[in-house]
Predict the structure.
Amino acid sequence: MINGNMILRVSEKFDSAHQLNDYVGKCARLHGHTWKIEVYIKVDKLQPNGISIDFSDVKAFLREYLPDHRHLNEFLDMRHPTAENLVMYFYNDIKNQFPGLMKVVLWETENNAVEFTGI
């Protein structure tokens, strides 16, 4: 057991395209981003080797899971693949794999991100 709060943080990047439907502006056209996702996982105990969850296990999951080089509207069958909808979608799936997940931050650009902490 850990005395205190320990949160494992892992980030990964992926490239994908989307278009915003029911939106007036340049983002209504098909365009792409290099997205960055950050996952924050609360850990309660360490293994005998002193590791909570191996960073490489989380990264391997994210690399396999994330929709790299995909058209998000089609691949995720999502009419409105906004950063807000995507972060909730990713949170729910990642939480199934890592129950200690506390939050996900999805960066659409280096300056713009959305954070979701679930319920």
Remarks:
- The chain is about 25% helix and 35% strand.
- The mean pLDDT is 95.
- Residues 83-97 form the longest helix (15 residues).
